[in-house]
Amino acid sequence: MGKQINYWLEFDSFVLAAQRALELGCTIVREDLDEKDCKVTESRDIGIVTDDNRACYFFHLPEAGDISIKKYDCGYRLDRGFNECENSVIEAGFSRIPTDSREIFRARLYLTTGYYDGNNTFIYRPDCIVKVYNSLARYVKKLAPYTELTGSYISMREENYGQRVEYKHKEYISPYCLKLMDEGYSLK
Length: 188
Prior knowledge:
By secondary structure, the protein is α+β, with helices and mostly antiparallel strands. It has helices spanning about 10-25, 125-145, 175-180; strands at about 5, 25-30, 40-45, 55-60, 70, 75-80, 90, 105, 105-110, 115, 120-125, 145-155, 165-170, 185. It has a four-stranded antiparallel β-sheet with strand order 3-2-4-7, covered by helices on one side. Strands 1-9 form a two-stranded antiparallel ribbon. Helix 1 (about 10-25) runs antiparallel to helix 2 (about 125-145).
């Protein structure tokens, strides 16, 4: 089990989170996903972060370990499968907000618990990356405060079958995404 925080956060606020990661000693790893030409770029420059929908981001803490890149048919990707790289990166992202469908897609910060090495020994994530993750999670919670929302569903329970039932839930949502919800956008 890893550590994860889900949120709805637009690109501009994500850039602030990425800047905080740089200040905490991370580099930004960008995976450009394309059917024929995937590539991985690592930088200490915030300019690497763009609103391209085909890019995935990771914050790499060099003191936690090295990253590794693997060649696939489509090109190069970060190799996060059962190796040191898994323990040295924090997956990060921003909400995709397509205007045509009026949807706001959830993003997350994610840190793995660890991995099994070749001897089947579990290698826990280093404390230094947990510290960075916790700091970033606190910062994201400031950018996207905990907000109570009311949702509804059609009940399948016998006592109120077929009726619309309201429920309350809390989510981390930026003020910008809340404004979009007031304009008719939905969370996905």
